[in-house]
Amino acid sequence: MESLVVGCGNVPLRSCLTMGFFRIWVAGCFVFAGCGDDDGACPSGFTAEGDICVPVVDSGVDAAEDSGGEDVGVDAESVDSGVDAALDASDDATLDAASDSGADAQADVAIDSAGDAGECAAEETLCNGLDDDCDDRIDEGNPEGGARCGTGVGACEQGTETCVAGDIVCQGGVEPTDETCNGADDDCDTRTDEGVLNTFYRDMDGDSYGTSSTCEACTAAGCSGGASLWATRPGDCDDSCAVCFPGNPEVCDEENNDCDAMTDEGVTTTYYPDTDRDTYGQSSSPMQRCSGGSGLVTRGGDCADSDNRAFPGQGEQFGTPILGARTAGTGPYDFNCDGVETQAYRRTNGCPTVNNSSCNGLRWSAATAPACGFSAAAESCLGFGGSCTSTSRSLTQLCN
Questions:
Q1: Where are the alpha helices (DSSP H) in the chain?
Q2: Which of 80, 109, 138 lies at the terminal end of a domain, its last residue?
Q3: Percent of the chain at pLDDT above 90?
Q4: Same domain, 397 and 323
Q5: Is the pTM of this model over 0.70?
Q6: Taking the CB of residue 134, how many other CB atoms lie within 10 A of it?
Q7: How is 307-367 classified by DSSP, letter by letter?
Q8: 198 part of a folded domain
Q9: 291 within domain boundaries
Q10: Is the model more confident about 92 or about 341?
Q11: Residues 134, 32: contact at Cβ < 8 Å?
């Protein structure tokens, strides 16, 4: 059977480290069951009284002295009476009940912080998960805690060092988190939104493309002038033109819509100046435009843009030269712009005497036709019966 250890008043006891135990209050004494050695022997400083271990006390002394020499106020008679009471209690069901109800709980608080049996601290001073002051409570009063911990920089808040399960932990504070773009120093490194800011580009024309002028912020609303003046994409070649930005299809509006350094490429119409307003322009002066406007036409080929009688396809013939010629015969007379001056009357030698296929129309009286614009004698031929009659007249040579 295991031994019982009896301790009365402040008599120092040595705790049992090898086994669990419980204690009950019997007649002014603590009785510790199960604190003997594995072979039932009492620990040092105690003597066996049957199955009970009691402190060794000089029989002739009323007051025992503890290791520090202080009066503990316990005499031999009181120890003996406590032993008797403990022996009686050991056979009683009260001891069993106490064992069942408190053995586990008391085992946790019987071992002090130093590991020396029976030595209880005046108060808890160490955070170690032990009942150092033997008051059935562990680490009460937050030993070694209470100091401020953590950082108060940025979004962080300091906490309090707290004794939890034998360790000092920081509780009640706000710890650093990953930096997000919110205007706060989330990671508490004295910098705000580092590495997470967005880049915006100045966009005065509202086409969603900006210039090289930038703003670093979480949202465009945080940039100067507000969100409407900033875009998330750069590359605008003309921030005063809302239809000019990269990728925009080119249209004929005299703007560089696609921002490729060219304007209206591939979408213009060729126009020609038409000074004489004959709807044909000078092929030598083409121009690419989106619209013609006054004095511009889409047809070229006019060989004399100073005279509206001259244009490609002109079918009429004229006896006066194209404007700008000084005198008749010096031309030009190419009114149809085919590069050739074609005479209107080319038959010569007057009318025949008989009515045949040659007896019709006008014929020059001479053997040669006059030049363009010159006048000469001519005959008007008319067949009647078998004869060909003629009527003389002066005629001007017409050309085109």
A1: 76-90, 93-109
A2: 109
A3: 65
A4: yes
A5: no
A6: 16
A7: -TT--TT----BSSPSTT--STTS----TT-SS---BS----S---SB-STT-EEEEESSS
A8: no
A9: yes
A10: 341
A11: no
Residue 185 lies in a domain: no
Number of neighbours of residue 40 by Cβ within 10 angstroms: 12
- C-alpha to C-alpha distance for 349 and 362, rounded to whole angstroms: 11
Residues counted in the chain: 400
Average pLDDT in the chain: 79
**Number of continuous H segments (helices) and E segments (strands) in the chain:** 2, 19
| CA distances from residue 392 to 69, 276, 370, 396 in whole angstroms, order as listed | 176, 38, 16, 13
Q: Do 284 and 322 sit in the same domain of this protein?
A: no
Q: Are residues 322 and 284 in the same domain?
A: no
3-state secondary structure of 7: strand
The angle subtended at Cα 219 by Cα 215 and Cα 221, nearest 5°, is 85
Q: Which one, of 10, 35, 39, 11, lies nearest residue 23 by Cα?
A: 35
What residues contact residue 47 under an 8 Å CB cut-off, 6+ apart?
Answer: 53, 54, 55, 56
Q: Which amino acid is at 192?
A: T
CB count in 10 Å sphere of residue 17: 12
Same domain, 381 and 400: yes
Which pLDDT value is given to residue 385?
86
Cross-strand bridge partners of residue 65: 71
Residues 6+ apart with CB under 8 A from 347: 358, 361, 362, 363, 364, 369
Q: State the total domains in the chain.
A: 3
Is residue 159 domain-resident? no
User: Do 362 and 285 reside in the same domain of the chain?
Assistant: no
For residue 55, the enclosing domain spans 4-109
